[in-house]
Structure prediction request, 761 residues.
Amino acid sequence: MRASAAPRPPFDWPRALKDAGLVAGVVVLLTLALVGFRIQDTSAGPPFAYRFDDVLAVALIAFLGRLAIGALRAHRVVPVLAGALVSAAALTGILAFGIDEQWLPFKSSVLSGTIALAAWILSARAAWLVWHATSETSAEVREARMDWLGAQVQKLAWWVGPMLLGLAVALPFLPWIDRRLLDIATLVATYIMLGWGLNIVVGLAGLLDLGYVAFYAVGAYSYALLALHFDLGFWLCLPFAGIMAAFAGILLGFPVLRLRGDYLAIVTLGFGEIVRIILLNWYQFTKGPDGLSGIPRPTFFGLPMVREAPDGGATFHSFFGLEYAPIDRVIFLYYLALALALVTNLFTLRIRKLPVGRAWEALREDEIACRSLGVHPRNTKLTAFAIGAMFGGFGGSFFATRQGFVSPESFTFLESAIILAIVVLGGMGSQIGIVLAAILLIGLPEVFRELNQYRMLAFGLAMVAIMTWRPRGLLAHREPTVRLDHGPPK
Amino acid sequence: MNPLLSIEHLTMRFGGLVAVDDVSFDAPPQKITAVIGPNGAGKTTVFNCLTGFYKPTSGCMRLRHPAHGEFLLERMEGHAIPAQAGVARTFQNIRLFPGMSVLENLLVAQHNALMRASGYTVGALFGFGGYAAAERRAIERARYWLERVQLVERADVNAGNLPYGAQRRLEIVRAMCAEPVLLCLDEPAAGLNPRESAELNALLTYIRDEHRVTLLLIEHDMSVVMEISDHVVVLDYGRKISAGTPEKVRNDPKVIAAYLGEEEAEEEGRR
Prediction:
């Protein structure tokens, strides 16, 4: 044990106890109202059930945990390791074998499981300390390590990218994939596409857009209205929806793009809400809160994916001589989302290497320098805004055709926030980081839907954790778009 | 010979403050004109008017581009001045694109030419047109300038990671990549050591002699000013107090007064 070799000061008990007590106090304050009272059916008795034992348990756990972390910082490894291991093993044992459940700190097994997990993490950290003398990794060291990781991932992207793509293409035919998982995969692909689209605006051009969902809505309603009123098909409407959304982007961008940073964020936030409220109130045009239903499903190059075509024509399965299977359409939608996402990705990868892409990044870096070099700031920003909006519009029309129903409820600020969170967490400008973030933020909560309200808690926890330890996003590393060819060595 | 740039009666007011007061001077073509003066004399304000960051309160700035004709700079939009009139500038506090590589910095400087070559993105996006060749030429131009300032080895490094002196040099060659006819340098020697100052002198005379570019330069470092400038304009409190060859300006009692204060100048006058 190298840790004990260093001379160490005596453990500062009063300070550690005070610190832990403070944390426990904060926890009590935070949880008293949320956990301590539970509203119940008044006919049965008093309006509240009191659960102060839970509050106490939470506070005690916070106290012990903080004390353990304090002890780890002072290199008192062994007692912490022992304590954490025993409690983790005990909790896991009780949870796994279902014996003596009254000893669990909470009635909910999910919460107890979380505590057990925390205890395991604590013991892992203590065990790590046994092997490594230092516990304090400075912020710079951690940043450098994560940068290195980001760079490695970017390098690996050459073969990880195609591998992931192969996996994505093969996904519907993997044995353990059922309809539910395929639906989740489609959802994730949609968000990846939206993330990639927003990345053009936020990651490349550095324009903080909090109202991206407005363009998503414009795309969805463009398709829905065009299809319902003019009886146009999905493939014809898709470019229209993109163009409409791009126009909406230019319309918004023209007056507001002279604003910077926070101000732009606030105006775009407002724009997102304005679009939603217009959709809600313009009843004659959008059917308001009732939404538009009966939006036609996409066809496979004109072949509908139904059991029998309404006009008696060929359907997808009859044309290819297959049995009709409802899952065909799910698979088709999945591939459609995947294809749209890939188009977005290819477009971004290509345009980054073109002058306009470099000008976007230069604008993000220094607008004044750009002006002094003859880059037109407003037009350049407008193209970024319009192109980002166009992909939002594509995403929107896919959403409309997948759901068959659109209503303003689907386009709340929360959607914008989630898409922005994907871009920011993934690491601004990092294409593969956005994939990772979309899987983390959309895929995992969907898979763990059984955890119901706790999954949003976990979502929040993950956000806080990343913002604390990795404020620049998971895989923020930028590769230059062009390298100087040094030629053969002379 | 017609001056490349004539500034006539330029005035810039910020509310009650007159930063530049009725300043007129010419920049002869393919010469180095230095604008000097004590702190707060209005030198950078003249530059900001010239490059479109400020709209002057009154006055006229006439630029005679050898190929594109005559421009009245005070009537042009900020981004059009470098793009059409061929006026490039550097900044007192360096303004690179720190998160982009050195080479990318130089390619952004050639934005307008590359945009035309890429068919305003549409052509190059689908692989039409000679964009690849245009980009190769742009990279060759960048390499040429990087060789001039000994930065070829660091072409793929982020510009923000370069040492200070290298950032200064990079900013100058970035402005040169925009192919200007008039290059305005705002204190290019600030913070450079004597060796770097000497290299800067060599670079600036090279730009003047080999690339036939007119230079306008704000400088405090007298070793740079006296050694390389052909023509010096002295500003004080927003007014032009002297102009002429470095020799003449150096011995002008008004200039000495402005720099050293009235009293010493009077003493010097008595001697």
User: Anything to note?
Assistant: Chain B has twelve helices and ten strands.
